[in-house]
Design brief:
7 helices
Length: 154
């Protein structure tokens, strides 16, 4: 059996990790904080992996990242995950224009947008994008102009 990799935490570090474990926004961040706390108790990486349903390599990688970057290293870095097909900055105006013309026929609007934007997407993606535009444009429902009204509601 290999050497147990230990990590010594100050009271302040332990307090910050406990707060992250209890109140972190994402479950991944909470799990990573928990991982570091368990390792600070002197547990083996295999034990920590078994407790958290992870694997040995993952535990050691997060421990290394915590040692290098501290609590901020346990967060998920930007740029992860699938990129959006429709971009608010680039496609908003065109989508609004086409949906306004084809208000009653979302399938037709989707076909036109796919052709004009040269992108393939599902009707569900278009609905989700329209909902995002409506929410971004309407902080409150009072005093909305006609141009700020939701484009599509189900």
């Amino acid at each position: 059996m290999g050497k147990i990799r230990k990590i010594a935490l100050s009271e302040q570090e332990r307090t910050v990790l406990l707060a992250g474990y209890r109140q972190g926004k994402s479950s991944a961040f909470r799990q990573r904080c928990h991982m570091i706390l368990l390792k600070s108790e002197g547990r083996t990486s295999q034990d920590v992996a078994a407790i958290l349903g992870s694997n040995l390599v993952s535990v050691n990688n997060w421990l290394t990242r915590y040692e290098r970057e501290g609590i901020h290293g346990l967060g998920t870095r930007p740029g992860r995950g699938r990129k959006a097909i429709l971009d608010v900055a680039a496609d908003e105006e065109k989508v609004r224009q086409v949906v306004a013309q084809e208000r009653q026929r979302l399938k037709r609007a989707k076909a036109i947008l796919e052709e004009e934007l040269d992108k393939q997407f599902s009707e569900k993606t278009l609905k989700r994008f329209l909902k995002e535009l409506a929410v971004a444009g309407n902080v409150s429902g009072k005093g909305r102009k006609k141009s700020q009204m939701p484009l599509y509601t189900k």
